[in-house]
Hints:
By secondary structure, the chain is mainly α. It is built from three helices and no strands.
Amino acid sequence: MPATQARGVRAFARGARAVFRYLDSVVGGQDYQRYLAHMRRAHPDRPVLSERDYWRERYADAERNPGARCC
């Protein structure tokens, strides 16, 4: 593969990864990981929720407090 073509492929891959990270953050893909980091840093003595329980509680909270949702 010529050098210019390889650079183009690497640039495309970097761009695709950036788009994926952005979309992942928009839909909340890293929320549980951020929750774990927060709990370890700010509340090391408290138990952490499992991922399943975290999402269950998060959706229940969204139902209790609709906030700015349209529907």
